[in-house]
Amino acid sequence: MDQPESAGVDRVADLFLRGLGLVYVCAFASLAVQVAGLLGAQGIAPAAELLAFARERLGAGGALYALPTLLWITGASDWALQALCALGAVAGLALALGRARLAAAFTAWLAYLSLSCVGDVFLSFQWDALLLESGVVALFTASREPRLGVWLARALLFKLMVLSGTVKLTSGDPTWRDLSALTFHYWTQPLPWESSWFAAQLPDAVQKGSTLLVFGVELLAPWGMLGTRRVRLGSGALLVSLQLLIAATGNYGFFNLLTLVLCATLLDDRALARFAWLARPARPARWLAARRIAAGALLCASAVVGLERIAPRELFPRPLRAAIALFEPLRSVSAYGLFAVMTQERPEIQIEGSTDGAQWRPYVFRWKPGPLDRRPGFAGPHMPRLDWQMWFAALSSCRDEAWFQAFLVRLLEGSPSVSRLLAENPFPDAPPRMLRTTLARYRFAPFSEWREGAWWTREEVGPYCPTVELEDGHLSLAEP
């Protein structure tokens, strides 16, 4: 008879750890080439300034509790930030190779936590939280109690998928309810790539059917984890297929790879029997009860945080919420829910500089849409964080985006580390005297224009920020 768990999970646990190690390597390598421009001394949101502000406001002990980062020890210089990225990448590589697994898993998690604490808006994406939570799960898996770790990983995958489907329904967004969401998604998502244009050309009936399929996979397939072996493996196949389709039509950094690693825990050792190189660690007898209690506490905290996203807070006793809040600075138990509200337009910010107020030259970003004839690129597991934040900024206002104002200051200062985040710096020798920002609505070009080499159409909207220049290190309105 096919039982819910008819085979061991020792090899599955090892596969999960190796896969997570690979994700860590991708995440740290991606961040390493951006961290100076984002968080360095001449970056957009200097980590050193955040730490100094926290110490001044909260005191040494309060600041350490609120921002548990190794940078309190090393300082937040560009060198220290790069060293943390290197440390995390090495630890991730060791985990991927099956070396010193517990030490490697803890080191990678601590390094990523240390960077996330000072990452401001640039390390606040849901997959950053998912990586940290997966890292905590890995500590149980790497401590040679594989069944605990595998079940925690499955529970995390269940939470991620069910919440992602539920928030789409509870948000009240009409495009999800009438199944038209995907008619907008492919061209309004943060960073489309070439395949997104082709997906957007599919007939409306296919788009609506695809939307219904998304609901089916996110809301129904996860329950198969609780079924028989055959049902569990079928559920995993559906979840994997959805992630592959998402990865094939958009740029989401390491999110899809990380979710696929979580999906791998739906396998069992029978399915991995041919992979003899996967380790089969012996089960230790010591501290088993303590590990189970800790795993249970993590599972409960994860469930409460997830339910708070979709249920009234009044359902949860205040002492329970307060107990969980004590661990919020660790950023390792989170709620999820991607694209709860589907954007139906695509505003884009263009930044131009000038030395005389007459001739203006545009800054070109590496990944976000800009030139109408530039083919949307595939970033792979790389997470271009500035380009992503530009998408969010365009949906907001200049006044509400303090980081964007800091970005403009760095461009007027001619910061080399910030300029390296861009594809083209139109002022390589000296920074401009003033900057202007405009907003335009972008949309994928129709087939007739695409044949002529255009990927986008653009409709000008108007200014985003006032035209500004630098005065005593601060933005001021430029003289007309």
Structural account:
- The protein has 480 residues and is α+β, with helices and mostly antiparallel strands.
- It has two domains: 10-330, no CATH class; 347-477, no CATH class.
- Helix content is 53%, strand content 10%.
- The protein has 20 helices and seven strands.
- It has helices at residues 10-32, 35-39, 47-66, 71-74, 78-96, 101-117, 126-142, 146-170, 174-177, 182-188, 194-200, 204-219, 229-248, 255-263, 288-310, 318-325, 385-394, 402-413, 416-419, 447-450, and strands at residues 347-354, 361-362, 364-365, 422-424, 434-444, 456-471, 474-477.
- The strands form two sheets. Strands 2-1-5-6-7 form a five-stranded antiparallel β-sheet.
- Helix 1 (10-32) crosses helix 8 (146-170), helix 8 (146-170) packs parallel to helix 15 (288-310) and helix 13 (229-248) runs antiparallel to helix 14.
- The longest helix has 25 residues, at 146-170.
- It is globular, with a radius of gyration of 24 Å.
- Residues 1-6 have low confidence and may be disordered.
Distance between the termini: 81 Å
The H/E string reads: HHHHHHHHHHHHHHHHEEEHHHEEHEE
Unreliable stretches:
1-6
- Radius of gyration based on Cα positions: 24 Å
List the total number of helices: 20
Per DSSP E runs of 2 or more residues, the count of β-strands stands at: 7
Strand order of the largest sheet: 2-1-5-6-7
**Main beta sheet strand tally, sense and closure:** 5 strands, antiparallel
The share of residues in extended strands comes to: 5-15%
Helix/sheet category: alpha+beta
Summarize model confidence as the mean pLDDT: 92
The portion of residues assigned to helices is 40-55%
Shape: globular
Write down the domain tally. 2
